[in-house]
Amino acid sequence: MDTSNTPDSAQLMEQILYEVKRVVVGQDRFLERVMVAMLAQGHLLVEGVPGLAKTLTVKTLADVVRGRFKRIQFTPDLVPADLIGTRIYNQKTGDFSTSLGPVFANLLLADEINRAPAKVQSALLEVMQERQVTIAGESHKVPSPFLVMATQNPIETEGTYPLPEAQVDRFMMKVLVDYPTDEEEYVIVERVTGPAVTVQSVATTDQLAALQAQCRNVYVDPSMVQYAVKLVSATRNPEKHGIKGLGAFITYGASPRATIGLVEGARALAMLRGRSYALPEDMTDLVPDVLRHRLVLSYEGLAEGLDADALIERIMAAITPPAKPLEHEKRVA
């Protein structure tokens, strides 16, 4: 039986969001994307200037779901052992013991990920993909559920290491976080300078795992899967889909992980919106977030002053989403 739209699960997600919003002001779109990533078991890459409540959002969410939260500040002198842990020699017993690193958490915040060298990034890559780490030939599983949220600072590029394409591709979405409105900033100042707000734990990590399992049961129509395939295919070969002159601006298009991310994301967003079936708008809302970090622009594209979002806009304008299903066609698989 499909339980993805039971009142209990909808109510639980509402309670989680309500508690987080007691602390975090605005940033609704960003918070929605964090919830989508959590339900779809994907990782999130976040770009925004400092001070926009990125860390606060994830920490508050961890408190609300009674999860373990760890934050790692990435720096150029970081080594993989600082991240995953290491073997320690005990002189008294003459044995080696394993000291596990901060990646053993439910919500891991990798702050300024592009400041760490390639060795550290590859250590994070294994844990993101395999959900386990290897220390001295021994594998250790990270807790479940497990979500990596990495932040990038767009204003300082000095002393940063560009993320390898293979690692960037492992992030389900790249979200751009913008400044709050004047009204929101007024409320932020009131909240921060006023009495401290204590959030209530309204869920457990087991309940979160149950929500993730329910998310897999949300129905996605084959026409929507076909739409996702077309969108991703158009980033690799725009001419094939009748989009002339776009191929010269793109060196590499998106991988099949993007197609999977679109389908999984549409499921999670539909569930957040209280439905047991996905609609075309659930997918179209997420297309820029899922694709923007996966397109590698050519020198020609960069010289024209284009960015990934502008190209995605042109692709979405050329490929029409499937028609919204009629009421009698809304069925659950």
Automatic annotation (TrEMBL):
It holds the Pfam family AAA_lid_2. InterPro entries: ATPase_AAA-3, CbbQ/NirQ/NorQ/GpvN, ChlI/MoxR_AAA_lid, P-loop_NTPase, Sigma_54_int. Keywords: Hydrolase. Residues 6-153 form the Sigma-54 factor interaction domain. SUPFAM superfamilies: P-loop containing nucleoside triphosphate hydrolases (SSF52540). Its EC number is 3.6.3.-. The keyword Hydrolase applies. GO terms for molecular function: hydrolase activity. It is an enzyme of class 3 (hydrolase). Signal peptide: none annotated. This is MoxR-like ATPase. It comes from Hydrogenophaga palleronii.
